[in-house]
Amino acid sequence: MSTTIAHLRTALDLAANGIPPLPLRAGKVPFGNCRTCAKNACGGRPNMKTPGPCTCPAPCHAWAAAATDPHVLNSPQWSTAWRRAAAVAYHPGGAGLTVVDLDNAAAIAWARAALPATRIVPTTRGEHWIYRGVMPSANAVRPGVDVKSLMAYARWLGWGSGAMAALPGAVRALALTDPSAARRAPQTLSAPLGGQSGVCRHRSPVFLDRGIAMAEQQITGAREAVHATVYRTFLAVLSTHGRCGCLTDTHAARLFTAAQAKGETPRHCTDAWTNALTTLGL
User: Fold this and answer.
1) How many CB atoms lie within 10 A of CB 77?
2) 149 vs 117, 131, 199, 245, CA distance in Å?
3) What is the spatial distance between Cα 28 and Cα 66, in angstroms, rounded to a whole number?
4) For the residues 91-108, what does the mean pLDDT come to?
5) Does residue 137 contact residue 148 with C-beta atoms inside 8 Å?
6) Percent of the chain whose predicted confidence (pLDDT) is above 90
7) How crowded is the C-beta side of 14, counted as CA atoms within 13 Å?
8) Which of 14, 17, 41, 100 is the most interior residue, by most CB within 10 Å?
9) Crossing angle, helix 226-241 and helix 266-280, to 10 degrees?
10) How far is CA 216 from CA 86, 196, 206, 212, 249, in A?
């Protein structure tokens, strides 16, 4: 069986199971848009949120080209792409799925400790953990971890093994690492949580000081995905200490200083802090 026929059969099998496929060229990237759609001259797909054939018949617009219609997959325009394809990919969000892409042994060890068991597909360097449910996609949410669901594609590497679990909150929380969408706040700090009136559970200030020191170490030790690490650390500190009024400007300044030492701007620190407050409802 030729590679072209094998890729097409895989795509038709996926489509029959409600999984929208698309061809990948060498380098595991989608084919470029056709001349009509080059540089998005056609305006892109309506909505750009659902898979399906483009208004032109070519497999354009990357993940958005993924289709389950066998007539589209077998069309002359797609046949050229299948002849040149190096692999088959699919749009997880279009199939109602989320893929946690674990790129190395450390990422796999983290997933085994932090996430519920689910369907696992081995990859060249790691594993894909697949869950039922969709969410926004996000890259580098942790060292060696990407989340692929809506408006993204994942390489098809087989059906894997294990029972597929529902998408857990722990995975959804991973996408809350980009503070760019946070509402803007002044760059100067006021007492961040002094108005909170919850009961203090910290019998000794040593507990709080230790927590802040650990958070500083977490930020300082980040070797990649610094934005994500800063946000997650702020979120962890606020979830533990944010409701009783213990945190002061001094504590926040220590965290901001650690983040800025890693290259973060004051604006990013403020946005990440504000986003964490908003996420926790504080």
Assistant:
1) 15
2) 18, 10, 40, 38
3) 15
4) 94
5) yes
6) 35
7) 28
8) 100
9) 50
10) 45, 23, 15, 6, 15
